[in-house]
Amino acid sequence: MTNHKRVVIPIALAASALTAPAFAQSDAERIRLLEQQLQHQAQIMQEQQRALEAMQDELERLKAGQSPALVTSPPPATGSGTSTTTVPIEDLHQPIAVAMPPEETGDEPLGFEIYGFVMADAIYDFKRVDPDWNDTLRVTTIPTADGQYGADGEFVFSVRQSRLGLKGDWDTDAGKVGFILEAELFGTGGDAGQTTPRLRHAWATWKNFGMGQYWSNFMDIDVFPNTIDYWGPTGMVFYRNQQMRYTWPMGEDEFAISLEDPGTALTVGRFRDECSNEVGESCESTLGEEYRAKNELPDLALRYRNNTDWGHWQLAGMARQLGYERRDTGFTDEEYGWGINASSVIRVTELDRLKLQVVYGEGIGNYLNDGGLDLAPRNAERTGNTAETVPLLGIVAYYDHYWNERWSTSIGWSGVELDTTAGQAGTEFEKGQIAQVNLLHYPTDGVLIGGELIWGEREDINGADGDDLRVQMSLKVNFPR
């Protein structure tokens, strides 16, 4: 997005432009809106005419040898103090660019784009999952014991996928700068199960350097398939991380290096249950309160992407120091994690895409979409025990097919498997898989409606397993563009 392509609109006019298509239900209402915009256009033409007359007077004074007078332009009728450009009636459906004060250097006003969508899901779950996650099929939330979350069968409505974002970039004397600020309504962590705003991206760039929260340099977002379930492929590297990154353009290709936040996915293994076997010990003082991550160095990620006439392929590497400590004994130590992620998107036809990814490593579970684990106790002994990295393998294989410009189907499978340790509890996650197929319709630009069949399975270390089947129907409406 460059300055000469942007249309800058005053906030008041942007608000009327956004609401007009949605609420103008009668000819009388449309006439009123047209009259308002004609009046606004007439005001601007009058202001421009006064400015031209003032400049003409100054020109005549200069030719006559008189002292120059200060030429001033009449203030905008809106009182905003910003440069404005009106938008024709037929362009009211275009994206909103909010007016910004002009630079003192005389550059044209800056603008940014508001984007996003409202998405509503209707889901029937033939089984039951953790109620905090019942509006998406996250494999690790599937129960492996009958009745763990109640009797089978549940209907769910959700709007948590809805999203709002701002983005912009512009040229300066010091080079191009840009930003992305984006949030959605899918609460996690302490807000799991709630429809609360959650930050997705807060990313600032200057030339080829960026800092903030954005897709990890270790992942390939283009591998994410054209599906409507929120969580997506279980075995995919999928992580928005806080980081600093530098990217070297290489013609059509690129190489990037990043230092990323070293969050560690750690389990205390069997020791969560040990309190039930020891006389006088409280369950509130298990190893879970004493055994925790201790990170001293950021993660290092390298990525090379090669764009070709048939699509692209990408290779990324990860190196990590995974520290931990025992608060009860004061013992500290660290392990080292590493990973390789190979991915590709192949253009099979003009519209169809084959999306593939294979990731393997040790102690990189925090970067996996679901089920990943970095550190676990080495053995079942509480005294003198240490931690070790957990190896894992993740695979993604999906095919996005477009029947035509208005209909599409995505079908595929993804799985992840962990090489667990002797110190983990039998009820902990060991492997999982998910398969999806859908039929989606695009009745007009910016609108999607369709259904999806989703199946997932979870297996624990002790061999217990559970699966789930659900159907989902969604309506997604993008903000006007």
UniProtKB/TrEMBL annotation:
Residues 31-65 form a coiled coil. Residues 66-87 are annotated as: Disordered. SUPFAM superfamilies: Porins. InterPro entries: DcaP (IPR045748). The keyword Signal applies. Residues 1-24 form the signal peptide. The keyword Membrane does not apply. Keywords: Coiled coil, Signal. This is Porin.
